[in-house]
Structure formats: structure tokens, C-alpha cells
Specification:
By secondary structure, the chain is mostly helical. About 80% of the residues lie in helices and about 0% in strands. It has a domain at about 410-475.
Amino acid sequence: MYWEDEEFDFYQEEDDETNEALNRYEQMLKTGSKMYFDVIQIEYITERFIEEGRFVPALQAVDLGLEIHPTSIALKTRKANILFNLGEVEQVLRLTNHLLKVEDSNHELHLLKGSSLLLLGHKREADATFQLALENAFDDTEEVLFNVGFSYEQNGNYKHAIHYMQKVLELNPENEGALYETAFCYEKLDENEKSLDFYNRYLDIDPYSDSAWFNMGIIYTKINDLEESIEAYEYALVINEDFSNAWFNLGHSNMILGNYYDAIDAFLKYTDYDESNDEAFCLIGECYLKLGEIDKAFNNFQEAITYNKTNAQAYFGVGLTLKLKNDLHKSMQYLQKALNYNETNSDYWFVMGEVSGALNYHELSDDSYHEACNLSPETLPNWLGYAEMLYKKGRVTKAISVLNEAQEHHKNNALINYRLAAYLLESDNEPKAIKHLEKALKNDYSNYNYLFDAYPEARFSDSVNKLISKYNPINS
């Protein structure tokens, strides 16, 4: 107990000294007067600024310190560190090269120099400099290995980062930072199982890390284990209920799973932290659409537009809800606005084709469906929708032509062949219709009613019925 009290008194005393130095420093800035600070006090002041991410004030403080103590290696090293955080890597390189002439065994200077070289693209020189840092690390080897690994991570070289983090873990298997960063690097390399393993090892030591739970949620989403992702995000939020991105991702996972009310609740919670986020309101609108609550969907898409007048998805959402309300002219106006801001989305063109077709704007409908198919030829409903529109307008030959083109992108697709059989029967081309029907039945007998849905009169064709009977699994 004695030692615990002594340790507490030490940190309390250090904190008091930091606060006293900061108060004097801020007073000096206000009055413009000159005051004396020793090296330790300047280090206290700059450390506090660095902890707060205020690197420019930290640089001003260290420069003041160097005016008072121009030969201090400690303050010059601190300045190099601050400049590095400000992205002034060429200045850092000049300063560390100068300081290493005076103190060539300073591993912190070698680390700063190596990290700067890495950022400037001089990897081979950086490797050699990091080796010097390790040779001079002595009792700080674990920390230096970690910082070398972190430098590679920051530079996007995740494999090298993992190599050094693994060396840290050889020295200390419970180094939380190394476990966390290794997990993060594996995540970046899409080695998801390894990433999860290291996050779990990290959480065994620190189960109250909201960021680790959050990152695990992202990985589970990537591997489509959505139940686990929801659980991970919920753990993150139990630890930190103000973790706004966890609310957003929780909503997204629930939405994918079809838990639309839970998704809406999570997205609404997210808007408590970012009340003007148009994407969140679009997602809420989509959830309400899935639930068939058209008015609520409409209101949320409109809300998104109030925050972002160029949000194509929001305009599309309003256009879609108006279509469902059968307000087709207004729907077209919003769909056109969506296309003004994003003309490469095939869904927008497809719905524009539906709406304009319903309003008998034949040319616009034709062009819209054609564009949808052109932009997304792999999307089968685009082709089927286009052909159906043409067929209903009495343009059977054109519908057949569209389906023939669709076959170039969807080889031997049964639905296309059923539809072609229907339209060819309508055109009194029974021999060709039977060929397509046979292809369809071979590939997917279970959907043969798709033929009758498109062309009910086919039920009265002996050739059709004989062929269906032939491929009936019961008869085989």
C-alpha cells in the first residue's frame, strides 16, 4: 500500500507541475511578457499539447524553449517529433541528420529519420536507419520494434508492419498495441480470419475496447456474418454509447438482415450525433420502403434533400415513392433530378422507363430501358422489364430482339427462354418457340408457369403441353 501511495503522489506531483507550467505559459502569451522555463517544463507543456493533438502550439512552445536553451538535444528531438506530426518530413530529415552528428546513439532520432525516409519513398535507406534504431534501443527494444512496425503501417506496408509487430509479440505476447495493430493490418490485407484472431486476443486482455469491437463488426460484415457483426457493434455501444459510427454500422447490418425497425432505430440514433447526414435519412427511407410505409419513406427522402440538394439517391427515393402512390408526373420530375446528378445508375433509368412507359412517353421509355440494359447488362430484370414493356405496347418483334440481345449476356437463361417462347408463340412462330421452351425446361423445369404468365394462351397448345409433360420429373 505504501508503494501505491508513493506512486500516486509522484504522478499527482508531476501533474501539478505540468498544470503550473501550462498556466504560467498561457499567462505569458496573454501578457506578452517574457518568462523563464526550464527544459523539463517545456517538455511538460509540449507533451500536453501533443496529447491534445495541438501540434502548432506545441511547435511554438518548443521554439520558445530553444530560445532559452539553444543547445538542448532533448528539445531539438521534441521539435523533430512535432514537425513529423505536422508532415514536415524534409525538415525532420535535416534536423535529425544534424542531431545524429552530435548524438548518433539516440534511437528516437533514428526512428524519426527512418520514418521520414519511408514517407519520402526511400525504403532501403529507411530499413537501414530502423536497424540503427534497433541496435541502439537497449532496454527499449520492444517499444522501438513497435514504432518501426507502426511506421510501416502508416505507410501502407502492412506486411512489413506485421513482421515487426510479431517481433514485439515474441518479446511480450500481451503487448496490447501490437495485438491491435496486427489485427488492423491483417484486416487491411483482407486476411479476415487472422484479423479476428488477433482482435480476440486483444479483447481477452482489454475487453472494454470499443474500437476493437467496432473493427470486429466491420470484419464480420465483410465476411457476411451479420449476426456476429451486430453483436460486435452492440458491445462497442455498451462500452461507448456515443460511438456514432457504431450506430451507423449497426443500422446497416440490421438493414441487410431485414431487421428494418432495428435499423431505423440505429440510424435515428446516429442522427443524434450528425443530424444533417443525408445518407442516414436515405437509408431510413429505404427501410420504410421495404416495410411498405410509403409516406414515412417519402418524408425521410425529402429530409435528405433538405440537407443535400445534390443527393441523387434521395431524389430517386422520392421519385420511387411517388410512383408507388401513382403520382407519375411528379415521380418523373424527381427521377429526372436523380439522373441529372447521377446518370450512370441503371436503377434510375429502369424506373424512369417504367414511369414514362406508364405515361405513354414511348420514346423516353424505350431510351430509358435501353440505357438501363446498357449500363448494367448483367442485371437480368432490366432486360425482362424492357421486353415486357415492349410486349405490352404491342411491339412484340422488338421485344424478341431485346431478349435475343439479353441472351448474349445471360447464356441459356431459363427465364429468357420461357419469355422468348411466349413471345414467339404470340407471333405464330411455334417451331422456334418450342426450341426455346425446350431449352428452358431442360435448365429449370420448376418455372414453366413463367411461360403461361407471359402468354396464357400457351396452355391450349398441344405441342407446349407435350413438351412440358416430357420434362416433368414425375414422368421421368
